[in-house]
Design brief:
- It is a single chain.
- The chain is α/β, with parallel strands linked by helices and about 280 residues long.
- The protein has a single domain, classed as Rossmann fold (3-Layer(aba) Sandwich), CATH 3.40.50.720.
- It is built from ten helices and seven strands.
- It has helices spanning about 20-30, 45-50, 50-60, 70-85, 100, 110-135, 160-185, 210-220, 225-235, 260-270, and strands at about 10-15, 35-40, 60, 90-95, 140-150, 190-195, 250.
- The chain has a seven-stranded parallel β-sheet, with helices on both faces.
């Protein structure tokens, strides 16, 4: 439903890869709600994705940028403001990568060079994005910056590996940078902790299908889809959430606050879950 929630607003959306990406859905919803934006992703990711298709669909300019590179980010924000005709109102950070996961490294046996790379891409890049934006005064007052997270930042999920550590750090950055961005510029910073979602990145986690099914049975409202996450993100970009900042917002059908569901209990009783 288009009701112009983002009419006249400008932004940057990081991380759209293909139609399964949450960032892809956010771009589609942002267009429907009247926003103009630039799409960006790392050059290497763009070679494997379909971001050009999304650019054509939404009328968005695509600017390649490595989010771990300060110079790339400076160029991205400068060109985005030129293309869009002014300062920005929203930024989506939808970036995550673990070389340890890709290489099948167990959590207790990290390759620390891989760890550093994944940490930089998945979490430190969020600090770099906001640091560059703040120094360039690139975001309007009451602008909204959102990053995507997962409950493994607070709870242990075997197989999620060092991405759990990355998400913990990401959420800490949102709180700490959010304080300074709020007091200095009235810009809000939040993370959204989404249900397990069958994106290209998420599906690469060992045991992902089991995560997905278990979360569905645990959540009173069921898992939130990528499209539903996009709707929630649009609300966070809108003026209806002007005083929400430094929060990790669970968008997971109630999973985060459900100790155990009747469905899961029934499965134990009926012997579906075995040792």
């Amino acid at each position: 439903m288009a009701n112009n929630l983002l009419e006249g607003k400008r932004g940057i959306i990081f991380g759209a890869l293909d139609e399964n990406s949450i960032a892809w859905k956010v771009a589609e919803k942002a267009m429907e709600q009247g926003a103009k934006f630039v799409l960006t992703n790392a050059p290497i990711a763009m070679r494997f994705g379909e971001i050009d298709k999304l650019g054509e669909k939404t009328g968005a300019t695509i600017i390649p940028a490595d989010a771990t590179s300060v110079s790339d980010l400076e160029n991205l924000f400068e060109k985005s403001m030129e293309i869009l005709g002014g300062k920005l109102d929203f930024v989506l950070h939808s970036i995550g990568m673990s070389v340890n996961v890709r290489k099948g490294k167990h959590y207790t046996e990290y390759d620390y060079n891989h760890l550093t790379k994944g940490w930089d891409v998945s979490a430190v890049s969020f600090h770099k994005v906001m640091s560059v934006a703040k120094k360039m005064d690139a975001v309007n007052e009451w602008g909204s910056i959102v990053a995507l997270s997962y409950i493994a930042a607070q709870r242990t999920f075997p197989g999620y590996n060092d991405m759990a550590d990355n998400k913990s750090y990401l959420e800490s950055i949102a709180r700490s940078f959010g304080y300074y961005y709020g007091t200095d510029k009235n810009v809000r910073v939040n993370t959204i902790s989404q249900s397990p979602t069958p994106t290209t990145a998420g599906s690469g986690v060992k045991g992902f299908t089991e995560f997905l099914n278990f979360a569905e049975e645990m959540s009173p409202l069921g898992n939130a889809t990528a499209a539903e996450c996009a709707d929630y993100t649009i609300m966070m970009f809108s003026d209806f959430t002007k005083k929400v900042t430094m929060q990790n917002l669970f968008h997971d059908g109630g999973f985060a606050t459900t100790g155990i569901s009747e469905k899961v209990m029934k499965n134990f009783i009926e012997g579906r879950y075995t040792k």
